[in-house]
UniProtKB/TrEMBL annotation:
Belongs to the eIF-1A family. It comes from the Archaea. This is Translation initiation factor 1A. PROSITE patterns: IF1A, S1_IF1_TYPE. Gene3D superfamilies: Nucleic acid-binding proteins (2.40.50.140). It comes from Salarchaeum japonicum. CDD domains: S1_IF1A. Residues 7-81 form the S1-like domain. InterPro entries: NA-bd_OB-fold, RNA-binding_domain_S1_IF1, TIF_eIF-1A, TIF_eIF-1A_CS.
Amino acid sequence: MSEDEGSRKNLRMPDEDEVFAEVTNMLGANRVNVRCADGTERTARIPGRMQKRIWIREGDIVLVEPWDWQDEKADVTWRYEKADAEQLREEGHLD
């Protein structure tokens, strides 16, 4: 399959209160360490609606929503497939 502009997918982009992040460490108890695009390391919680449906591994690109009252914590809201993460890198959304 050719990698031309016709193969581009419309991907979910972050809302105003979400940031891109990369999973750096699995902590257990439905928590992961993430390195966010704003340069902050956070502990992110995987919500119940995602736990059994979507498997998250180290190195995955996710969207997180930082907590208003505690900046070092966040909730995972979305996980990108590998191909989608590559598309985000090619378009310059990720470092």
